[in-house]
Amino acid sequence: MTLIRHICAGLLALLVAALTSCSIGGSAIPVQGIRQVDDRGVRLPFTTKHSQRWNTANDGTEYEPCTGVQLRDLSRLNIDARSVRDAAKTNGQTLRGCIWTYEETATDIPPSISQTVGNGKGLDAAKARRSGPQDSWLDDILIASRRVMIHVYSFGGYCATYVESGTAIVISTANHSGTHPLNREQLCERAIAFTRATIDRMPE
Question: Which run of H or of E encompasses 16?
Fold first, then answer.
């Protein structure tokens, strides 16, 4: 009778474990909880409240911007690692990624850099979608033998690079506003530098 009780207790424990957890990226997390790790099992640098942060609009690449950049690269680029925050404002948003600010005190509003992922139909299709009167595209460049597009607004304060990864597009965006905003060349230098620091971690 004791042996039967032990067997039943063991089976019950296995059943409870199976019902209360699942494996994502090699890490067990509660089914009722919200996913907090990327596809490699690396934890996000913040706790997301969005149950649909990963969704069918941004699952075209395994690359996760929030864990793709290394602390040493943030330090080298003068970016405040502690400033990291989720780029998504609402649950189920297309873009998936993070925003950081630079460690600067010379301006009233610190510049920011973001990197986001969203599914797409290639770089040319992305360029066709962003071809309004305020949009301009600079000449493409190559980083690590990969095509990189550069997008700017005519009114300034913004520069973004576009790189293809799987069936998604990774966008690195440098922004600055305020009394004395950085010029287009400075912002593009920052977007390109951030792309250069992370592109080797983006699956092709």
Answer: helix 2-20
Contact 38, 25 (CB under 8 A): yes
State both tokens at 199: 């592109």
Residues 26, 41: contact at Cβ < 8 Å? yes
Give residue for tokens 């993070």: 98
**pTM, to two decimals:** 0.83
Radius of gyration, CA atoms only, the chain: 21
Q: What pLDDT digit, counting tens, does each position of 52-62 carry?
A: 999 999 999 99
CA end-to-end span of the chain, whole Å? 59
Question: What tokens does 23 get?
Answer: 């494996």
CA distance 99 to 80: 10
Q: Which segments within the chain are labelled E, that is strand?
A: 21-24, 27-30, 79-86, 96-102, 112-119, 135-143, 146-153, 158-165, 168-175
- Nearest Cα to 63, choosing from 188, 172, 191? 172
CA distance 160 to 145: 19
